[in-house]
Design brief:
By secondary structure, the protein is of the alpha+beta class. Helices cover 25% and strands 22% of the residues. The protein folds into 3 domains: 6-134, Glycoside hydrolase family 3 C-terminal domain (Rossmann fold), CATH 3.40.50; 197-320, Immunoglobulin-like (Sandwich), CATH 2.60.40; 376-447, no CATH class. It contains 11 helices and 15 strands. Helix 2 packs parallel to helix 3 (75-87) and helix 10 runs antiparallel to helix 11 (435-447).
Length: 448
């Protein structure tokens, strides 16, 4: 284990250590305790030129087997951020989170570094970035919406514990936000560094693409800053005048390239004929629709630097389904995204009600502990889990989260928790009221 805190790393070899105040607690504290921590942190921030403010979600907010209840940080962190930025206009925010969070006031900070959930050596990498030892060159692999209500599935996901409907079809993430013209906090593919890049001289090997062929793409990217860096060039495809409902643009290729300061490199990529394909509900397979397309080169999904048109030949002419799927075709009209069950059923090609899980079905090794929670053996497993693990959890909220995680864990995974595969089969047999089979499996398990 090579676990180092950021303070350990940043203060190594320093005659005058970087001062630190907690600012907030990761678990529940009294209002007086929070006020005292806020006061000490604000006092420190008001007397220094620069502030490094760590924000992030507590451990209990994210985990295996359960959904996050909110896209917000704890309220005390927002309150501290507002107080600190009111006192000091040179605040660098370090955000630790496994997924996007709401950051509507982040423009008050001078810089934001999103670390996600870095590993045991992450503090050293973080220190090197902040001190300019290395040039950060990452880009976001997901869009960061401004608020959870902006997410197209916010009104119907997760549904229930057993069944979730992906009604939004292709309009997931940046495909939705771009098509709907919905403003986001940070777009897919976005990321800045200590240098900048200029794109130029885009060229295509052909402007007429036929089946079985490829189109080669080239462009020059120049590093116009004073630092060496790596740029991630992204290739998107956009269909022009399609009869099918589509996203505004979709990522098809990318290339990460190291470029020295004040120099350029020629980036080369290619797209195949199938890169222009889309799923056909009518034919139940991927098809390429005849028509004109834009090949767009960008530094992010929103920052398109250059583009060229190409015609793709195909025997398939798209058939509009505007009447059957009006809301899917209307995403680009910027009106509220409304998804109707009748449209989803038509798109799916069957009534999804028939797919709903049946609680009376036979349990299997892939069933979860929650699936058998109504049986005697299931209740006993839950009781054993609580007795063995609850003492190590700090508060009731964390106990509830961890229990939820356990209930969503497949029985087969219980082998990692102290019993073997035969014992897992014995539990399944008991849940199915197969007592002799259960006894046989438990005996085999004891012998292993």
């Amino acid at each position: 284990m090579h676990l180092l805190s950021f303070l350990d790393v940043i203060n190594k070899g320093r005659a005058n250590p970087v001062p630190y105040e907690p600012g907030y607690a990761l678990n529940r504290v009294s209002e007086d305790a929070e006020t005292a921590m806020n006061f000490d942190a604000c006092d420190l921030a008001s007397t220094h030129k620069k502030v490094i403010l760590f924000l992030g979600v507590p451990e209990s907010y994210e985990g295996e087997g359960y959904d996050k209840e909110t896209m917000r940080l704890p309220n005390e962190q927002y309150r501290l951020f507002e107080k600190i930025t009111a006192l000091n206009d040179n605040v660098i925010v370090i955000l630790c989170s496994g997924s996007p969070v709401e950051l509507s006031s982040i423009s008050k900070a001078r810089a934001l570094l999103i670390t996600y959930l870095y590993g045991e050596g992450g503090s050293e990498a973080l220190s090197n970035i902040l001190l300019g030892v290395i040039n950060p060159s990452g880009k976001l692999a997901e869009s960061w919406p401004i608020r959870y209500l902006d997410v197209p599935s916010s009104t119907f996901y997760p549904g229930n514990n057993d069944f979730s409907l992906y009604k939004e079809s292709i309009f997931v993430g940046y495909r939705y936000y771009l098509t709907a013209g919905k403003k986001v906090q940070f777009p897919f593919g976005y990321g800045i560094s200590y240098t900048s890049y200029k794109y130029s001289d885009m060229a295509l090997s052909t402007t007429e693409l036929v089946q079985g062929k490829k189109v080669s793409i080239s462009l020059n990217v120049m590093n116009i800053g004073g630092r060496n860096g790596e740029e991630i060039v992204q290739v998107y495809v956009s269909a022009l005048n399609s009869a099918l409902y589509r996203e505004k643009r979709v990522l098809k290729a990318f290339s990460k390239t190291f470029i020295k300061a004040w120099s350029f490199k020629t980036i080369k990529m290619s797209l195949s004929y199938d890169d222009f394909a889309i799923w056909s509900r009518e034919k139940k397979q991927f098809i390429v629709e005849e028509g004109d397309y834009l090949i767009e080169i960008g530094a992010s999904s929103e920052d398109i630097r250059c583009s060229m048109k190409i015609h793709v030949s195909s025997s398939y002419k798209g058939i509009s389904e505007t009447f059957e799927l009006p809301n899917y075709y209307a995403v680009s009209t910027k009106r509220p995204f409304s998804l109707v069950d009748d449209e989803f059923t038509y798109l799916l090609g069957r009534d999804y009600v028939n797919d709903l899980p049946n609680k009376t079905e036979k349990r299997t090794i892939n069933s979860t502990f929650g699936d058998i929670s109504d049986t005697k053996i299931g209740k006993k497993c839950i009781k054993m889990y609580k007795r063995q693990f609850f003492s190590s959890f700090r508060d009731e909220i964390e106990k509830e989260k961890q229990l939820n995680s356990f209930l969503h864990m497949p029985i087969r995974c219980g082998c990692m928790g102290g019993f073997n595969d035969k014992m897992a089969l014995g539990i399944v047999a008991l849940a199915n009221h197969k007592y002799l089979k259960a006894l046989a499996e438990f005996v085999k398990g004891r012998r292993k």
